[in-house]
Amino acid sequence: MSVVYFEANYERRTDPNTRLILSFILAIATVGLSLSFRERDLGDTNLDLQNGLKLVLWFGCLAFSLFHIRTLISAFNSPSGIAVTALTVLALASATWSEKALYTLACAIGFASYLGVAALCLREFTEAEFYKTMQSLLLAFVGLGLIGALFFPDSTWQPP
Is the pTM of this model over 0.85? Predict the structure, then answer.
C-alpha cells in the first residue's frame, strides 16, 4: 500500500459490504494464492490449476474495482495516480511485443486488478486497519507453513 500511495482527495467512506469483500480478496491473494502445491520448471508459463485460479481472482478483482470506477477516477487524478496508470497501460501494451503475449497480458491484468484493489483499500481502510489486516494474514500464512511442515514436510517446504 505504501508503494502505491495516492493523495486522498476524496472522502473516506466505509461501506461494510465493500470492506468485507476487500478483506476476503486480501485474504485469498495473500494466503490462498501464495500457497504452491507443485514444482514448475524455470520459464514454464503453461496454464495449470493454480495459475487458472489466479487469473479468475484477477478478473474478479478487476471487475470489482471497475464497479467502483468513480472512486478509482478520483484516486488516479493525483500525480502518483497518473504515474501508476501510465505504468499499467505500459504493462498492458507490452503484451503486443512479448514472446509470450497471453502470459504477459495476464500478468498485466493482475497488476491492474491489484492496483484497483489497493486504491479501494485506501478509501475503505485506515492505514492502521490495513496494516493490521495484512499483518494478521501474513501471520496466518507463516503459521500454515509451519503447521504444514509438521504434518507434510516433503510437500510443505519445497526446494527453490
Answer: no
